[in-house]
Amino acid sequence: MLAACWSHARRRFYDLAEGGSPIAADALRRIARLYAIEDRIRGRTADERRQIRQAEAAPQVAELKTWLEQELQRLPGRSKLAEAIRYALGRWMALCFHLNDGRVEMDTNVVERCIRPVALGRKNSLFAGFEGGGHRWAVIASLVENCKLNGVEPFAYLRDILERMVNGYPASRINELLPWNWKPAVNA
Questions:
Q1: Among 75, 130, 135, 166, which one is most buried in terms of CB atoms within 10 A?
Q2: What is the per-residue pLDDT across 151-174, written as a single tens digit (0 to 9) for each?
Q3: Pair 102, 115 in one domain
């Protein structure tokens, strides 16, 4: 099952709250309470996060769903607010996925921040010259972003693994050089 993004659901209510909708503003307040729990549990183990989410966030999420369903019944079916509520309710199981798995974030903001440099640079990749050049650019961009995700300095990583490969590092052990497995070479 896929996890849905609370930030995307929230954004639809934000736009309406900016326009003066008290129901959308109330939805934002309710979602903000879920984010407050996430802020408090950031950095804890996956099991701790799951337990706290089950104890604190799950009841609030259930209450939010009931409230959204009630509000939807009172609204004109084609209103923007009804669309925002249907968007959230239509993805409800996926929005709740993080409640049962402490490894999963409640939104995709971290991932989106990581891919932003790649997305911004995609026009530049059109000038790679040929398909093979574009593929190589994608590999390097993926390695650099994986370095960032794993707390590895990209230039030091690339310099080290390229030197190792040139010096005959065994291809059968290449997985040891992936950013999440990499250990800097010890200078002799």
A1: 75
A2: 999 999 999 999 999 999 999 999
A3: no
